[in-house]
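Lab intake sheet, docking and co-folding queue.

SAMPLE TYPE: protein with bound small molecule
LIGAND NAME: zinc ion
LIGAND FORMAT: SMILES
REQUESTED OUTPUT: full 3D complex as structure tokens
PRIORITY: normal
SUBMITTED BY: R.K., bench team

The fields below were copied directly from the construct record.
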Amino acid sequence: MHESSLPYIQCVRCGHSLELETFEEKNEIIEGLLSCVQCNGVYPIISSIPFLVEDLSLFFSIRAKLGGYLLLNVKDKKIKSLIKQSLQEIKKVGDDITDLERNWVGIYKKSKYSAFQIKVRHVIKKLPQCDFVVEHGCSIGTMSEITAKSHGKIFGIDKSFFALLEAKKRKINNADFFLADSLSRPFGTMKFDIVVALNVLELIEPLQLLKIIKMQAKRFVLLSDPYDYERGKSSVKVRLDEKSLRSKLKQAGFKLINNTRKPSFISWKLDVNPRLELNYKVDLVLAAVLRK
Ligand SMILES: [Zn+2]
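RESULT FIELD (auto-filled):
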């Protein structure tokens, strides 16, 4: 985490500002602890990634394997004991998704640039230069890196540690990445010129995410999705399709622009393994905040 990001983040439990203790530093904070003086919440920074999660035990309850990996790799004793304690306090163990999250990093890394990424890059480059951008579900940082080339400061949020590790490897000076739940408001009520959320409606409750987006967006919103809601147990509760997404955006005070009023079907290819290729047809929506 860049130290300059500190004023922009907040305690995800109570919304208070955070104090930083640095244990290892090299151009940025590699290991450290963020703590809240108001509610005593603590958030470790591991491998330059701040874990802004409300309940670490709950986070590790489906990622005990990640917890074990972190225990082995973290150097600082304070962080080690925090992880250990969180692992011990797990109340109910769920199916571990550590390997799944790690496998998806491999798939995203392998997958070549498809029409979808090219289109999004084009849209982002054409937007007027902006100071602050947030990307929900930034994953390995492909789009954050592209966005950072033409805009000011980029904040990426994702819940996958291994994906963020890849994003950090890009060493983008004007981008920082946070392990957090988009719905827990790690940036408080901060406004962003552009809010980006690509292919995450299956993963983050759409209506709640739209509420956050409405609150955050100052100028533009860039959304895309293949509406692939068939995820069994982990499916979101309220599904939005191409029509309902557009009507919700209009209701929230956005104007659809750049020929995105009508649904699109842009190819997004993912190489899952040598014998399996996913070819999504993604819908892209660019909207502008209507001035009052
Ligand atoms: Zn707090």
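REVIEWER NOTE: Residues 11, 13-14, 16, 36, 38-39, 41 surround zinc ion (CB under 6 Å).
SIGN-OFF: pending second check by T.M.
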